[in-house]
Amino acid sequence: MENQYQIDSFGCLVRYEVLNYQKGGYKMRKALFVMFLAAALGFSTFAHATLQNNGNGLIYDADLDITWYDAPAVARNWADSIAWAASLSSTTTIADSWHLPSTVDDERPNVWGYNGTTKAGYNITTSEMGHLYYAELRNKGYFDTSGNPRSGYGLVNAGPFINLQPNHYWSGTEYSMSTSYAWEFYFNSGAQSGEGAKYSEHYALAVHSGNVGGSSPSPVPIPGAILLFGPGLAGIAAKGRRFAK
Q1: By percentage, how much of the chain surpasses pLDDT 70?
Q2: What are the φ and ψ backbone dihedral angles of 28, each rounded to 5 degrees?
Q3: Is the pLDDT of residue 107 over 70?
Q4: pLDDT band at 228 (very low <50, low <70, confident <90, very high)
Q5: Where does residue 127 rank: exposed (0-12), middle (13-18), buried (19+ CB within 10 A)?
Q6: pLDDT reported for residue 244
Q7: Cβ pair 8, 16 in contact under 8 A
Q8: What phi and psi values does residue 51 have, to the nearest 5 degrees?
Q9: What average pLDDT does the segment 10-39 reach?
Q10: Following DSSP, what letter does each residue of the chain receive, concatenated?
């Protein structure tokens, strides 16, 4: 039969004889197209993250244009955490001006919310740690944006961070309603609060503006599920080609 071509319902150019006579192959072709499309959409979700591992605990966040220092987890009070971050310029000799992550302060009482529009609560991405937890690492808060508890919350994905703990982390921002307190982020639940008593001992991350140590940053590895899924798709594609001949 002379080969003829036409556009199928998926926008793919296929042979007319496949459309009319080799229905099994066509079904396989449609299935493969849908699967490849789903894989591409799934990969784009992972690829949205803009974290680059520069090595030596330095992780560049291209979205915020800051570099995180994934330091070994040591609990300190707020003042000691501030001093620790400031001392990194002399102890690491990498760059100066390291500091604790910032949080947008709220001059009102510590009002909590769920939809990300308040300064305290859940699903807040206006702080550097909130942005890291939700937007970059794609973790879930204990409550959804409607205030309903949900499963699968917490530090499920730590990305390139190896020392990040599901616990409380200090922000470098004081709570203006009471300077005895500072803002903190809960990596175990996705909450943010200005009620961290400065004498309490929490963990801390340090940040620096720009791309520190990143002349040739290496991208975050593709999640294992995608790597496993890829060879499976290739095998199915090979079978599809044999089936359609």
Answers
A1: 62
A2: -65, -40
A3: no
A4: very low
A5: buried
A6: 47
A7: no
A8: -95, 135
A9: 43
A10: ----EEE-TTS-EEEHHHHHT-HHHHHHHHHHHHHHHHHHHHHHHHHT--EEEEETTEEEETTTTEEEE------B-HHHHHHHHHHHHHHT-S-S--BPPP----SS---EESSS-SSEEES--SSHHHIIIIIIS--B-SB-TTS-B-SS-BS---TT-SS--SSEEEEEEE-TT-TTEEEEEETTTTEEEEEEETTS-BB--EEEES-TT-SSPEEPPPPHHHHHHHHHHHHHHHHHHHHH-
**Whole-angstrom Cα distance, residue 123 to residue 120?**
9
Q: Can you tell me which residue has the tokens 């599920």?
A: 225
* Tokens matching residue 120: 């305290």
C-beta atoms surrounding 186 within 10 Å: 22
79 and 198 Cβ atoms separated by less than 8 Å: yes
Residue with tokens 């330091």: 71
